[in-house]
Design a protein that fits this description.
homotetramer; 5 helices; 191 residues; Glutaredoxin
């Protein structure tokens, strides 16, 4: 139905693997957010498309929707230029841009920040910005590399929020027939 | 939950009273659209806020959503400067702005185009632009004078589209507890 | 030097032929504005590109620059749909859009509003919006059908305003060597 | 005449003090650019106002104007968060944002990057973004902390470019009577 919906099967969203958090007093897990719709926004602080579109959009969602129903999570998925986008730089960035939503720093295999971080890999993301919607039952229902416009994103959030948790599971199973939102299959997103 | 939701009770949407249609080969009625979510956008062609925000938004909705599920209807509710916003002028306007969605010209009491037109009066609209969302069961669920941003409007459409028709009726009855969208009571919108 | 400068020779700007004025207590003539730089913005009230770009730009120039040095004149050059863009409609349009700069209604040959109006013809304009810059000496120095961005338009105004009147005449004669702005030749703009 | 012109006397522009350059094969000096109008854009790579407005504007000027007449220079004036806006980070930033104009990194007193850098101090800048226009004779003619709109900036560039070098010196001396552009006095800008 919409350009935003690019995948056909819903799969359980892999748990976040985070080395550090900003804007939250305690670590978040997807498991602990069951029952909420989760807007996961993966970005890099020096990615122009993220700074211009994705991050302001995440901030708008955070400001306009009820946090008891819709959780906005930023995910800093640095896969290039690691040396200049470390935790200190991100902290300054989030402070200067007045970001208020929780931001997790994607973890690396081993001690060094290098290569693709773990959550980014688990979701088979193609780059930044990437927007992922996770339903109340914990399934990925939308996975989009690039820009999703406000109209379609609002629509998808509204549709997901309206689902009963059981309904969400069914919808996830129903694949293409689902109203408006589908995502990666059990084997991933086929980058 | 959101600024877009400004009224508390859902009521049956008054039927449109239209003197003429553009962009449709046959007259539309709300009754014939039962089962669809209806986006009713009331405007005047020389209203700057309509031209800048409301009309492009209606056009975007028309282009991005499935017409089998979501009906976009423009309503030309001329309540001032009637002499220069007649049907001929509107036709040129719609042509020059390449509007594609159906537009109904709101009817007047009697022969002359003067005063407040009938549909505008029946909905107790306060001015233009006014955005009205009607659910699958034919109830007004959002009534907003002014601008509704894309994120909230998309959200409301997504929520309404997810309702079962019976569910819609229930939600309409449930008033304030409804997820995200409520509207005028049976007696109107209390302008 | 810039995309804004599309013609090579300066010519004396044809006098305006105006049937009626808005936003000025007395008719304006180019002759009476010698010594000022004139920004002549030709538009039609139902031309989307005019409403979105050209008219707001004219309004900005009117608000930001000193009217003793820079005169902004709107020119309503209706060459199509004459019946719905008459003086009454224009008056409502200017009122609703809160336009403050003087607007002249381009005159027609004969009594009827039909075909190409006279000033539009004299300048050999290709359509609307058209932007014309006239120097202190009364010569056309920029003639552009379509959009000129603020940076280049500001630049051209700054350059023209800096000219001495004698200098303006010389610059007009100097053709391609002129700093930044040239326009139609003595025979017109070669539409 | 315009909001952009906020200072009353022109002064000789202090020479740049640069530790390193991007986007130029050889170091630039103001002295070597005499005869050109110089647009000096001081920014920090993690300053939101710079990223959103100032830097794209500098890029537009660089792309639209003749480099033989108008020199655009970026000046990275890091006065806070030095550790995360070092040369390596700037290089990534300039690469990712596809900046093409020459960028000088403002130098510090001593070896360490700390406190206010030297050029920023010499110009008594109040923060970032700061826009400085330098005339053909090497005098500061506009000094603005914050945003200058394209219309006024284009205007000022056009006016300065039209000056003869002798005229520039005179205009600098003429203070308030100058057409459109004035700047800091000999003692500085009175932060």
């Amino acid at each position: 139905m919409t350009k935003a919906m690019t995948h056909n099967y819903a799969s359980v969203a892999p748990e976040l693997q985070i080395s550090d958090w900003l804007n939250t007093s305690q670590p978040l897990t997807l498991a602990s957010l069951r029952g909420k719709v989760i807007v996961l926004h993966a970005f890099q602080m020096l990615c122009p498309g993220c700074v211009q579109f994705g991050i302001p959009q995440a901030q708008r969602i955070y400001e306009e929707f009820d946090p008891k129903r819709i959780a906005v999570i930023g995910l800093h998925t640095v896969f290039e230029h690691h040396e200049v986008m470390g935790p200190d730089a991100l902290e300054v960035f989030a402070y200067e841009y007045r970001l208020r939503f929780p931001i997790g720093i994607d973890k690396y295999e081993g001690e060094r920040r290098q290569g693709l971080p773990l959550t980014m890999g688990a979701y088979q993301m193609q780059g930044t910005p990437t927007l992922i919607l996770i339903d109340k039952a914990g399934c990925v229902r939308l996975h989009k590399f690039g820009h999703v416009n406000d109209l379609m994103l609002g629509f998808s959030i509204g549709a997901l929020l309206s689902e009963e948790i059981d309904g969400a599971a069914e919808a996830a199973a129903a694949t293409q027939e689902s109203t408006a939102n589908t995502a990666c299959d059990a084997d991933g997103c086929g980058v």
